[in-house]
Write the structure tokens for this entry.
Amino acid sequence: MDISQYRLGSKDLAQKCRPSFFKFNSTADIEPLKGIIGQERAERSLGFGLDIDNEGYNIYLAGYFGTGKTTLAREMLDKKARKKSIPSDWCYVNNFRNLEAPRAIRLPAGMGLEFKKDVSMNMDEVLKHIVKAFESEEFEFKKTEFLNQLIEETNQIYLHLEEEARLHGFTISRNQNGVSSIPLKSDGTNLSQDEYMALSEDEKTELMKKSSLVQEKINEAFRQYKDVEKKAKEKIKELELETARLVAVPDFSGLLAKYARYPEILSYLQEMQQDVLDNVDMFRASEEETPLSILRRMDKRTIFRRYQVNLITDNSALKHAPVIFETNPSYSNLFGQIEFESEFGVLTTDFSRIKAGSVHKANGGYLVMHVYDIIKNFYVWDKLKRVLKNREIVVESLSKIMGLGNSETLQPEAVPVDIKVVLIGEPLYYYLLYAYDEEFQKLFKIRADFDVDMKRTRRHIKEYAHFISSICASRNLVHFDPAAAARLVDYGSRLADDQDKLSSMFDKLAEIIYEANCWAVKEKAALVGGEHVSRAIEEKKYRSGMIEEKLQAYIDKGTIMINVSGNRIGELNGLAVFAMGDYQFGKPVRITAKTFMGEKGLVNIEREIHLSGSIHSKGVLTLNGYLGAQYAQDKPLSLSASLTIEQSYSGIEGDSASSAELYALLSSLADVPLQQGIAVTGSVNQNGEIQAVGGVNQKIEGFFQVCKEHGLTGQQGVVIPRQNVSNLMLDEEIVIAVKEKKFNVWAVEHVDEGLEILTGLPAGKIKETGDFPPGSLHYLVAQKLSKWSLKRGPVYGAGLGSMSRKSDFRKRGRR
């Protein structure tokens, strides 16, 4: 039996990039990277999604954080946007027919600002000219004529009234309270109160009758006065309107001519001109005030705001279609809002308080958001889907949608939307939305998947160097020499846990670049060297390694019992990986198995106390299938056994310990000790084949550290699945230890190979007779199980035979 065939050489433990591969003195000599590396599938999918303009072909970029989703989106969207024309400007204006429904007007790109300025300047001129016209001598002369005519006619009415009153023995008196009648004596003087009281009842009655007749005359005269006054006011109103028209129409004519080819604008300007004429009294003075004093007293914003243009989307500064990255997609930030202001304690609003959101700004282009920021707010997600389905955006407050208030009275006209939305998020969110939101399937038909790693090709290795160059150039860092670049390539393979791959988690790579630069600056080095990159990696591990050090200290003191020398029956070191945020490390765990005669089968202690995860429980239950197929083909499997991971007080998940548990179980059955200096990882199937596991690098390094603290003997090592050899990217210290034969790494494909390494005995292959070779480990296990079966066999067999005979007897009786 030769177990050296399973031992790996030092060259198998890591794939190293040689500095000589790079043909530069420093990364300053090469071009910075353009775009990202190794995401051909995502790039192709995103490109197709941008090329297709049909409804529903919005895009979801699915990938883990740091894989370059935002970078690729920014680059490809900018490139695509340059080929598209600048979208139209949009503005809201007053709807003079319905103030609660502001009108939305589309203008060619860049004309919105010009239109706003034109309207503002034109209205300034119109209002200035109207005020000036009202102050002119001609206007005052004509107005005075109407007023004089009113006075003259009023005087005629009064004189006629006076004559009528005297005919009935009364005179008319005018005061601030109006017009009243006073009775006269025969000599023409006023009748006093005492004289009135001295009159007889018949005289008083006669006087009251005459007074009633005079009062009717007064009322008639007052009605005549009102008619005369009304006609005078109408003439003055006509004068004001004609005066305003004479100055306003020429001012508007230039504006109407300029925008004559835009029907919506032309209609709006005509309505605005008519509104100015209909409300010309806002600009005239009362009899007590001059036009200038009234304008100073009144709030100009309130007067003139109705004639402003609210430009919500101004694309005058754009050179191509917009690309908007919304980092805070709140309801108002995305879809706009209607603001309010307080006037005398009352909240008011109008069309000028309508504010645009990112959807308005990205209209005609692209809007990019992170899905997590959206789906946590139901109203934002629901509104976004509605915008994409209806292809229009209506500005409305969230409180109105939720029914929390009714202060908002505006209902702005909807703005048509032509937009492509790009969502960025993890794959999990895509799958959940696709499964539980039918509208999502119809609206986001393109998925671009970003991988966490790429093939380790010569092209990708060179692109790693260009990536370093781009980071150094953009952040003004010290450039890398070839050794430093080679070390980062190796770190990329370690992140990918594969000798043939490189990580595409560019954020994690950038962290090492920044930190290596810091160490180089501290040493005042001209270039970042390989030692600086190694220092950055080690320091990063040190910062996160407190828990790992504490566990190692417990193992060194014996608090956590781990044996790395000697031999023991039914006991073996398994390997576990602990995840602490962004840091993972491996440490050995003690696995023990106890077997005894019985019929309970395997008992997983962790499962019984609910500390075992479903995958771990599956791994243990799989051992039943292996044992039955291996040893119970010609006899019942009479076995009771317990398995546990010692000193484990938290949940356990994964099946990577199943092979170690099987080795411990077979050791206990065969009464053959296992070498304690060898740790095992790997899952096993019912055929006894060893299957790949995760975290193999951390597991090996964790056990090596324990062995190193107790002293390396050259007999210690780790047994791993053969499929995991390509995943090995071990620390240089372990590679050297293996090269110097102080430590070992074995790779196996079957349980039998692992048994031979751990026990030093041949595993033994079953013969055609169904027996195992004497002296082999399987032979010893089979002998133990046969012995237990024979001890229980007679009772079991008798009972079974008795039951069989009784059954046959009943069948015969029934026949």
Q: What stands out?
A: The chain is about 50% helix and 15% strand.
